[in-house]
Design a protein that fits this description.
The complex is a heterodimer. Helices cover 0% and strands 50% of the residues of chain A. In chain A, strands 2, 5, 6, 10, 11 and 12 form a 6-stranded mixed sheet that branches. A 4-stranded antiparallel sheet of chain A has the order 3-9-8-7, with no helix packed on it. By secondary structure, chain A is an all-beta fold. By secondary structure, chain B is mainly beta. Helices cover 0% and strands 51% of the residues of chain B. Chain B is built from no helices and 11 strands. In chain B, a hairpin with a 3-residue loop joins strand 4 and strand 5. Classes of the chains: A mainly beta, B mainly beta. Chains A and B meet through strand 6 and strand 10 of A and strand 4, strand 5 and strand 9 of B.
Chain lengths: 113, 112
Amino acid sequence: GDSVTQMEGPVTLSEEAFLTINCTYTATGYPSLFWYVQYPGEGLQLLLKATKADDKGSNKGFEATYRKETTSFHLEKGSVQVSDSAVYFCALRHSGGYNKLIFGAGTRLAVHP
Amino acid sequence: EAQVTQNPRYLITVTGKKLTVTCSQNMNHEYMSWYRQDPGLGLRQIYYSMNVEVTDKGDVPEGYKVSRKEKRNFPLILESPSPNQTSLYFCASSPGTNTEAFFGQGTRLTVV
């Protein structure tokens, strides 16, 4: 079945460091790919998405490129801030899949001043 | 403000005592879902609904029931909660099959 694998956390960085959170997926066909972010005590918010191969999603300085050849959707940010501390979830959804999202386990990011 | 509202936010209950977690959305969305979040497992879908009176099982439906009598509400019912249902629960809604999902703030349930 479909699955999403994320790098294990926690990831601890200093402010202004470069961030990469790896995400790979297993799926048939052409799923849409997402990154969601969960700030402490809150629900999930969509951070960015890509719906087809080679699409780049971007938002708030974060970027991820849909790479079908490597089945990956790695999240990157050039300079993290303390306010980026959160849990990040990679997810996929099949078209026609009744909107079911399949999530990775989540990666906790802690950014220190 | 467009939102998905869950209640309660926190709940501690005893094994076997029926409970309901409510979910309401004010965006007129067709699709609603329930997920549970467990450490190391991410979020897994429990049930989903495509419209009023149309519901179906997700990946982990055992021990749960849902209903969709009105478009805006999608309550999650635990008829006889057990400790393995201790988890963080999220309700989500979306307008279509290939659109963004909006999540509620979560309900942390502890069953003792």
